[in-house]
Amino acid sequence: MAKLVETTYGDALFELAVSESSMDSLYEEAVAVIDSFKANPDLEKLLAHPKVEKEEKETVIKNVFEKFVSKDMTGLLTLMVSKDRQGNIVDTLEYFVEKVLEYKKIGIAYVTTASELTDAQKKAVEAKLLATTDYKEFKINYAIDESLIAGMIIRIKDRVVDSSIKTKLANMANELSGIQLA
């Protein structure tokens, strides 16, 4: 059910952004609202509290966001609260952000390595990703996991490329355990 909620509201916001040529501004506002909710978990608790009246929740949304975001974004947030969908606000906006990035051909990659990459290595990784995908640009999130020993793991959406030594050793161990000696 939650997936349906986030796609319904997220698609509506995306269509609005396209029709009104406000994609960049709504994208920035969505990121700001997501950051606000993540930085203030009490806001989410307040909106989810069953003893707080719906009208009060809508007033809170207006008071918090009206000065900082467009009427379209405030309208979406208050609509979601009025329909008791306040628990889906962050997921909806994250869906919208992903949809905008996909529309603009901007990929999000998660690269995990055993040690810190140099700037030249990061540029090489980005160049390789651009050459092997349909994206025009990448936002790359780098992480370090020393247990990989060497190599890297790259994740883009649901695709994973794992060239780490840790995985290669695990695969080799599995193959060797299956060999029967006479």
TrEMBL record:
Q: Which residues form a coiled coil?
A: none
| Sorted UniProt keywords | ATP synthesis, Cell membrane, CF(1), Hydrogen ion transport, Ion transport, Membrane, Transport
- Lipid metabolism recorded as keyword: no
In the bilayer, the protein is annotated as: Peripheral membrane protein
Can you quote a single GO CC term?
Answer: plasma membrane
Q: Which domain of life is it from?
A: Bacteria
| GO molecular function annotation | proton-transporting ATP synthase activity, rotational mechanism
Compartments in which it is found? Cell membrane; Membrane
Which HAMAP family does the annotation name? ATP_synth_delta_bact (MF_01416)
Q: Which family does it belong to?
A: Belongs to the ATPase delta chain family.
Q: Which PANTHER family match?
A: ATP SYNTHASE DELTA CHAIN
**Protein name in UniProt:** ATP synthase subunit delta
Protein's organism: Lachnospira pectinoschiza
